[in-house]
Amino acid sequence: MAVYSFSVIFLCLLTFTQLLLLHSLSATSSSASPYLYPTTLFDNYEKMLSTFRIYIYTPQKPFTFSAPPLSLFHNSLVNSPFITQNPNEAHLFYIPFPPDFSTRSRARLVKDLRISHPYWNRTLGADHFFVAPAGIDSSSDRNAVELKKNSVQISLFPTISGDFIPHKDITLPPFNPSPLALLRQGPANTTASFLGFMIWDGKIESNLVNEMKGDPEFRIEAEPSNRVDLVKSSKFCLFLYGVEMTWMVEAVAFGCVPVVLVDRPTQDFPLTDVLRWSDLALLVGTRGGVKRLKEVLHGVSDDQYQQMKELGVAASRHLVWNSEPQPYDAFHMVIYQLWLRRHTIRYSRREWV
Ligand SMILES: *[C@@H]1O[C@H](CO)[C@@H](O)[C@H](O)[C@H]1NC(C)=O
Ligand SMILES: *[C@@H]1O[C@H](CO)[C@@H](O)[C@H](O)[C@H]1NC(C)=O
């Protein structure tokens, strides 16, 4: 009897150790790269380069986007080899319209496209995409509804809750405020002096930020002139979701692990079909206050932290914008996300002759 229970316990121990071993093996293999699908990404990307074709409808009036990631995306696309003049070979259709277009104007535009071209009706807009800075809202007009529900929306990050449809819509990586040459220097070779650094102009009240201001482990600045130095000398860079996130890519590139403070699930991170954000950034709720925040940050082991930092630096090349698009940069990775969305069912009326 004693022998029997001993062997049962031994078996259990063995299984538990094996499980641990399996778990650590899978943990290292899945987190050794910052990608969601490291085995298919590069082949798919090459295939995209050689085959992806996009048709652009002629805008009603010439217009420009002024905000950098939007203008960079639009201008890079218009001048890219992905553009085709032949709609019959296009995988996707781009509907350009000005950033301040009203819901009514959008509805009218879709109605015009529906009548004057055969492409909208085939998928009710599912192989179409558009660029709108803050995303578009709902409407009761049929044309506006199809645009909102079926077409791929490309907007700035972060979006307003409700104006982003997960798995369909795309956000653009924020435009990095630092020159690229500086970003490429990567992390500083020093130990961090602060646990967390945050840019906070105080325009919105936040209990958590007020608490953090009184804590010497955090550095909170309104408009720091030495932002890059502070990023490089902090272990974590903190962002209140939706407020000031433009320097998030800079944080990642300089090895300051991003911590996004948010109380609801978020699915609108840039390159969310490419990068495994859960290995690059932390999401922490604000309701537990500074005590909970510090528990989470101090709870990250040195190995785990080092890996997040390294994966972030590796991922940052995909998040930066270039005035002349470069392989695997933000422009190309947004195009890649469009490429992943090219499979739609077309309800075409075939004419058999
Ligand atoms: C698309 O369908 C609508 C009806 O939903 C029709 O009025 C329109 O003429 C069709 N467009 C084309 C180009 O056939
Ligand atoms: C950081 O600096 C130390 C001492 O100067 C040096 O030994 C080490 O190789 C450096 N590490 C990197 C990654 O540059």
TrEMBL record:
* InterPro entries associated with the record: Exostosin (IPR004263), Exostosin_GT47 (IPR040911)
Membrane spanning residue stretches: none
GO MF term (any one): glycosyltransferase activity
- Tell me which residues make up the Exostosin GT47 domain: 51-287
Q: Kindly indicate where the leader peptide sits in this chain.
A: 1-27
> Which key words tag this protein in UniProt?
Glycosyltransferase, Golgi apparatus, Signal, Signal-anchor, Transferase, Transmembrane
One Gene Ontology term, aspect cellular component: Golgi membrane
Where it mainly occurs, coarsely classed, is Golgi
| Cellular localisation | Golgi apparatus membrane
How is this protein situated with respect to the membrane?
Single-pass type II membrane protein
**Family, as annotated:** Belongs to the glycosyltransferase 47 family.
The record's PANTHER family line, in alphabetical order, gives: EXOSTOSIN GT47 DOMAIN-CONTAINING PROTEIN, EXOSTOSIN HEPARAN SULFATE GLYCOSYLTRANSFERASE -RELATED
Q: What is this protein called?
A: Exostosin GT47 domain-containing protein
